Amino acid sequence: MLQVKNIQCQYEGISVVDDVSFHVNDGDICSLLGPSGCGKTTILRAIAGFQPITMGTVTLRGNCLSELGKMITPEQRSIGMVFQDYALFPHLNVFDNIRFGLSKQSNHAQQRKVKQLLELVRLEGVENRYPHELSGGQQQRVALARALAPSPDLLLMDEPFSNLDAELRKRLSLEVRDILKELGISAILVTHDQLEAFAFSDHIGLLYNGKLQQWDTPFNLYHEPSNRLVADFIGEGSFLPGVIGTELNTVTTELGTLMGNRAYAWPPGTPVEVLLRPDDIVLSDFGGISATIEKKVFSGSATLYTLRLPTGSHVEALLPSHRDFVINEVVKINTEADHLIAFGREALHSGEHKPRSS
Ligand SMILES: Nc1ncnc2c1ncn2[C@@H]1O[C@H](COP(=O)(O)OP(=O)(O)OP(=O)(O)O)[C@@H](O)[C@H]1O
């Protein structure tokens, strides 16, 4: 339903979004993820109609909204927007804030719609309060209801949960996802919080320096990063040196010969680095490689350990926290990595794609 094709955006002649393309299907919930300044908000503003584009097109349901020299106004786009600071009208109560976008409808239709939305976002009973009389989470729900009131085709959300504490943030983002899924509304969320993007989205676009590095499902972004930049940015993990083995799909490393779920295009003996996620490393009761606990970070049900291997290389392991290892303790480990991603060592730090034969 939304197609963003080869768009470029500039500020004062300098390109900050370059050749970005993706599409959003009906009912799809997506996120734009990336470090500060990578261009997420600029892309969202280009879709909303606040930011001109200097190349490419933005098309919604087949209608071109933006191209070079053309920008349909935000009000004519059938796109709702929720901002980081909620942008509620301080002089209007909750009911009137939500009703704001419905001015073209009859009074009766407005009343009915606002009541439905109050129920949907679970704010019945506070409709007469003013924004300053609401908690952050309640204000965010009002902002959501107001953006949903005109039944937009697409909802855009710019860091909508970032002013909330961690617990509320998590709960509200899942609630909002449920509401959007219930209504079948497509949405794009801008966030720099990857766990939020993982939990919220069907698809995620990872941006770096104004370029889209990968548009994929959260699972693939984590397990099948398309280049080194994505692998570095997403999740925890370590890169272990190895060489392509003689057997198909294998890489020989100091943790043994690892077998992945793909055929590598490099010839045997090519030096590579393999990406090992913390959940790829398991404790081994029989045999295995000795590793020394160097650091540990407790996170409730699991502990993230940094382990030093005999050669001095490091890997990370996420282990159930009921077994509590101490710093400098030596443990035996093995790998269980189905998605064995390798990068050519010559491509390190260049962000170059890994060769794949299939
Ligand atoms: N009005 C402006 N004038 C000039 N440069 C701008 C303007 N707005 C943003 N930029 C620059 O454009 C680039 C992209 O900014 P953008 O706000 O899209 O990034 P972002 O990924 O949303 O960042 P953040 O996560 O920090 O909000 C940045 O380098 C930023 O400094």
UniProtKB/TrEMBL annotation:
Keywords annotated in UniProt: ATP-binding, Nucleotide-binding, Transport
PANTHER family: SPERMIDINE/PUTRESCINE IMPORT ATP-BINDING PROTEIN POTA, SPERMIDINE_PUTRESCINE IMPORT ATP-BINDING PROTEIN POTA
Transmembrane segments: none
Database matches in Gene3D superfamilies: 2.40.50.100, P-loop containing nucleotide triphosphate hydrolases
Domain ABC transporter per the UniProt entry, residue ranges: 2-234
Record flagged with keyword ATP-binding: yes
Lineage: Bacteria, Pseudomonadati, Pseudomonadota, Gammaproteobacteria, Cellvibrionales
Name of this chain's protein: ABC transporter ATP-binding protein
Pfam families: ABC_tran (PF00005), TOBE_2 (PF08402)
Gene Ontology molecular functions: ATP binding
Taxonomic superkingdom: Bacteria
